[in-house]
Automatic annotation (TrEMBL):
Solcar repeats lie at residues 6-93, 101-214, 223-312. It is a multi-pass membrane protein. Mitochondrial glutamate/H(+) symporter. Responsible for the transport of glutamate from the cytosol into the mitochondrial matrix with the concomitant import of a proton. Plays a role in the control of glucose-stimulated insulin secretion. One of its GO terms (biological process) is malate-aspartate shuttle. The keyword Mitochondrion applies. The chain crosses the membrane at residues 12-32, 292-311. This is Mitochondrial glutamate carrier 1. GO terms for molecular function: amino acid:proton symporter activity; L-aspartate transmembrane transporter activity; L-glutamate transmembrane transporter activity. It comes from Panthera leo.
Length: 323
């Protein structure tokens, strides 16, 4: 079955709506993922996702969980739109001969989609990670200050108030990066982002298409929306866990600020080697369940918005009636 072509504006609007709803729902879990992935042995501030979120609310307030969300909400629309539209475009091009798409062609379309999206993903993640990780570094400084005070006072109970460090804003970070490193500064970790997003799309899109097909009644042209949602969730979480090692490396490479006694890295292989040597293989799965919890509803929602054709309805309402 050749994939039907949907108008590009509709694809972009659907991708945007899906991204905005998804990010708003799961951003706090994404923040926990970034902070857990950036923790190195001996400098642990958080023991789990729930511990991270509780401590974040306590020290930074409820909106502390949404640090960096503005960057994501601004850039997730073009990112999701590019990814979903590119996958549809490649699937359409590859099925023009009227033949059913083979698994290889589905993977090829996914690969194309993953490659296209990094144009927006890399700078978005770069800025988001700095904003999300600022709270972890501040908490770490506070703990170290408390420990130093404790030893200085010979075991007396310390006051844990450390001097509040000013938190950077996305605009400030962008300006500083452009000034010091040029446009390349925003694209730090591009290779790692490609190594995460291309395999993700290669796994996700064919898996989603096949799961969605399985749940489609023989008589219907489309799967029911709950099937699309579940297929998006299962495919998303499977692909997310599969590429988590690359996500850990990417998070570490894109973090400009380091905590006390934390390793610095020169590139992808150096980072992977040091993580393996100092933290063991399990470190590559840091934040994997957070990532699965983020990606599953994100892509589930995206596929529902896409399959319900919300944008097509909106565009239909905006069009003047035909006489």
């Amino acid at each position: 079955m050749a994939d039907k072509q949907i108008s590009l504006p509709a694809k972009l609007i659907n991708g945007g709506i899906a991204g905005l709803i998804g990010v708003t729902c799961v951003f706090p879990i994404d923040l926990a993922k970034t902070r857990l992935q950036n923790q190195q042995n001996g400098q642990r501030v958080y023991s789990s996702m729930s511990d991270c979120l509780i401590k974040t609310v306590r020290s930074e307030g409820y909106f502390g969980m949404y640090r960096g969300a503005a960057v994501n909400l601004t850039l997730v629309t073009p990112e999701k739109a590019i990814k979903l539209a590119a996958n549809d475009f490649f699937r359409y091009q590859l099925s023009k001969d009227g033949q059913k798409l083979t698994l290889f062609k589905e993977m090829l379309a996914g690969c194309g989609a993953g490659t296209c999206q990094v144009i927006v993903t890399t700078p978005m993640e770069m800025l988001k990670i700095q904003l999300q990780d600022a709270g972890r570094l501040a908490a770490q400084k506070k703990i170290l200050a408390a420990q130093a005070q404790l030893s200085a006072q010979g075991g007396a109970q310390p006051s844990v108030e450390a001097t509040a460090t000013p938190r950077p804003t996305a605009t400030q970070l962008t300006r500083d990066l452009l000034r010091s490193r040029g446009i390349a500064g925003l694209y730090k970790g591009l290779g790692a982002t490609l190594l995460r997003d291309v395999p993700f799309s290669i796994v996700y899109f064919p898996l989603f298409a096949n799961l969605n097909q399985l749940g489609r009644p023989a008589s219907a042209e489309k799967s029911p929306f709950y099937v699309s949602f579940l297929a998006g969730c299962v495919a998303g979480s499977t692909a997310a866990v599969a590429v988590n090692p690359c996500d850990v490396v990417k998070t570490r490479l894109q973090s400009l600020q380091r905590g006390v006694n934390e390793d610095t890295y020169t590139g992808f292989l150096d980072c992977a080697r040091k993580i393996l040597r100092h933290e063991g293989p399990s470190a590559f799965l840091k934040g994997a369940y957070c990532r699965a919890l983020v990606i599953a509803p994100l892509f589930g929602i995206a596929q529902v918005v896409y399959f319900l054709g919300i944008a097509e309805t909106l565009l239909g309402l905006l069009q003047p009636p035909q006489h």
